[in-house]
Amino acid sequence: MRLHVRHTTHFEYNTALVYAVQRFMLTPLGFASQRVESWKITAPGMDKALAYSDGFGNKVHLASLANHQGPMDVVAEGIVESSDAGGLVKGIAEIAPRAVYLRQTPVTAPSEAMLKLATPVATKDTLPFLHQLLKQIHKNVEYRLGTTDNQTTAAQAFANGNGVCQDHTHIFIGITRALRLPSRYVTGYLVTGVGASSTAAHAWAEVFVPDLGWVGFDAANGICPTDNYVRVAAGIDAASVTPIRGSRRGGVAETMTVEVVVEIAQQ
Amino acid sequence: MSFNEMLGPDGKVRLPYSKVESWLKQLGPSDIERALRECDARFRRQGITFAVYGDEKASERIIPFDIVPRIFAAQEWRRLSAGIEQRVRAINAFLHDLYHRQEIIRAGRIPEDVIIQNQAFVPEMVGVNPAKGIYAHIMGIDIVRVGDNDFYVLEDNCRTPSGVSYMLEDREAMMHLFPELFAGQRVAPVENYPAMLHKTLEAVAPSSVGNEPVIVVLTPGIHNSAFFEHAFLADEMGVELCEGGDLFVSDGWLYMRTTQAPKRVDVVYRRIDDDFLDPLSFRPDSSLGVPGILDIYRAGRVTLVNAPGTGVADDKSIYTFMPDIIEFYTGEKPLLNNVPTWRCSNPQELKYVDEHLAELVVKEVHGSGGYGMLVGPTSTKSQIETFRAKLLARPSNYIAQPTLALSTVPTFVDAGIAPRHVDLRPFVLSGDQVRITPGGLTRVALKEGSLVVNSSQGGGTKDTWVLED
To answer: Is the CB of residue A96 less than 8 Å away from at least one CB of chain B?
Structure first.
């Protein structure tokens, strides 16, 4: 599938920005089932931004600006061609040792209730187990906007029985890490229908399945990623792969609006 | 019976102390009074103070300085420093491994969870290649002596160890008060520490930087307990002392504000804890750090000293593995002893600790500064019982060690001269080479029988001498 992505983050302030520094984790990598045809980030300071790859293999940009008047847009846009690999992610160079993806963070740490879903299985049964876990979390935790925020822990969302993709993903990786399966938090985009737009990027989990490799699991939708997905960045939890993280002086009363449009691109 | 460093087990004066012992004998009460008065005035004038956390009355105190030096013979020091260097090299190799291939975990020499789930392990450091492969450029290794040739490492401080300014001021005070003592014996100099530190910092500048890298000291500010030391070291090295707000990131480089144009910065000797260093990568509410500095560091455009994530090597849960760590990376047996340690997270070990609490020293796994610890033999029954409740409520938070008979050095106290227990913190610099200060900071427990030397718990300091051959 050839997908056109346009991810716009719009900032407004009551006063001018004196100074700001922003980190973008907004650049998709190519791998076996994803080819990045074109990609561009447009933002103030982007022409002189620092670009580097982090220990998780993500392409990161750090841009700064001074004395900026008026609103500001950060736009990540491009065309990505994806194919359905049943969620299997092959061909991304691994820098971090896999054990690092076993680290529980305050937001992934499993509660007693979550651990009840962490049934140890034989290596050969790992994949079926993960599919079952995927269905179970999808069923137990209802997708509902506005019930959680970016500080919500997996344990809280699981107890409340609702959340958004970030919560589903934290729950999933909290449980799989408890089973000593390396698991990462992945950000990206998902085409939801013709002409549809959403107010957020998407997130899902990837688990290293023995003898198979990294496999994606989207617990918010109860499926493995297909060719409707564009994979952007991976880390140990949501905070480690926040698409835009910044700090500023001036720019009082910031408001931020996000628009994500993912469409099937015209040939 | 503790080892007395001046009078050996046979009651005879040990060789390195022969001059000082006879000097002490002829020292009259008026000499002592003059010295103590001068010391007090001197340290007050120079503003050498430290803050005690949890003490509302006196937020700043002067560390009591003792005028009897602590002395090592050249031979003793050679042996000790070989052990220190071995340990420091192993720790830097260990840190490099943890943030790269993790061979030591793959080899099964250290359990995965001890590293991966450790709060002080910093995943953001994975894959970073610091200049010269050095992570812990500045270490303060706490060592105690229990016998003539018997030294134990208590702690490897590889985050932001402090105390070096006391070492320097103690030496200056001694030379000023008792110049006659230094005549006729060669005491290895320590006053070149700031120059050695500067050399080390220059040596670890990013490789892209030319001959004269711009170095700064980054302090959390005047409310930090070691602010005096931050200012002192910056001043001695002739570099700028900065707070977070003085530094900023622009177009992919780190700059310092100056009265003229912003100046590029190459090396940051930071005395801010990892958590507060960069709100974009660590605690978002930190206003002490510099937003984006970690990104600049990861791109190899600035060197942070010490590297973030070094704390995983001095964590008390790692300590018990140090002998293995040293062997794994150096292929040698450790030259310095580790104190046998019980991990209270293990039920069997907890049982032993619970049954022998009155004999043991129990510490918090993540604690420092002598806070929140129990010294069984010098505690009352009720103190022990209170502590037992805390231990049993959260066993994994504690480790326990036998109470070591720390060596003593003669010390001035109200009743005259009496032996008091001491430890030693040598300061070790790693850059182009490993440099160890001859001596270091000797801390002394001023209370009779006390084994807690921390300044926050009523400890003092002594000038520490290494005699040259």
So the answer is: yes
Q: Which one, of B262, B233, B268, lies nearest residue B248 by Cα?
A: B262
Please provide the DSSP assignment of B238-307 as one string. T-EEE-GGGEEEETTEEEE--SSS-EE--EEEE-S-HHHH-TTTS-TT--SS-TTHHHHHHTTSSEEESP
User: Residue B357: how many CA atoms within 13 Å on its side-chain side?
Assistant: 22
**B 108-137 residues with CB below 8 A of A?**
112-113, 115-117, 121, 123-128
Residue B229's closest CA among B253, B193, B180, B265?
B193
Interface test with B, best of A18, A58, A100 (most B CBs within 10 A): A100
Please classify residue B80 by burial: count the beta carbons closer than 10 Å to its beta carbon, then call 0-12 exposed, 13-18 middle and 19+ buried: buried
User: What gap in Å lies between CA B416 and CA A35, rounded to an integer?
Assistant: 81
**SS3 assignment, position B382:** helix
Nearest CA in chain B to A97: B101
- Using CB atoms within 10 A of its CB, is residue A79 exposed (0-12), middle (13-18) or buried (19+)? middle
Cα separation, B429 vs B415, whole angstroms: 39
SS3 assignment, position B181: helix
* Domain locations along chain A: 2-81+244-264, 83-191+201-238
Report the alpha-carbon distance of residue A210 to residue B319 in Å, rounded: 33
Tell which CATH classification among 3.30.70.1560, 2.60.40.2250, 3.30.70.20, 2.40.50.140 matches the domain A2-81+244-264.
Answer: 2.60.40.2250
Query: How are beta strands B240-242 and B215-218 bridged, if at all?
Result: parallel
Q: Please, are residues B173 and B65 in contact by the beta-carbon 8 Å criterion?
A: yes
A74 touches chain B (CB under 8 A): no
Residue position matching structure tokens 């190459």:
B266
Angle at A239 between CA B255 and CA A137, to 5 degrees: 170
**Which residues, in sequence order, are bridge partners of residue A257?**
A10
Rounded to two decimals, the ipTM of the complex is 0.95
The interface residues of chain B toward chain A in range 388-427, judged by CB-CB distance below 8 A, are none
Contact present, B284 and B275 (Cβ < 8 Å): no
- Strands A255-264, A197-198: pairing is antiparallel
Same fold, A2-81+244-264 and A83-191+201-238: no
Flag whether residue B299 sits within 8 Å of chain A, measured between CB atoms.
Answer: yes
What is the chain A residue with the closest CA to B279? A247
Encoded amino acid at B239, one letter: V
Q: Cα angle vertex B101, ends B254, B291, to 5°?
A: 20
- The rounded distance, in Å, linking the Cα atoms of B46 and B32 is 21
Domain A83-191+201-238 CATH class label:
alpha beta
Residuewise pLDDT in 10s, chain A (267 residues):
999 999 999 999 999 999 999 999 999 999 999 999 999 999 999 999 999 999 999 999 999 999 999 999 999 999 999 999 999 999 999 999 999 999 999 999 999 999 999 999 999 999 999 999 999 999 999 999 888 888 999 999 999 999 999 999 999 999 999 999 999 999 999 997 776 777 778 999 999 999 999 999 999 999 999 999 999 999 999 999 999 999 999 999 999 999 999 999 876
Token pair in block for residue A241: 């792969």
State the Cα angle at A123 between A119 and A125, rounded to 5°: 65
How far apart are alpha carbons A62 and B386 in whole angstroms?
51
Which amino acid does the sequence have at B313? Answer: A
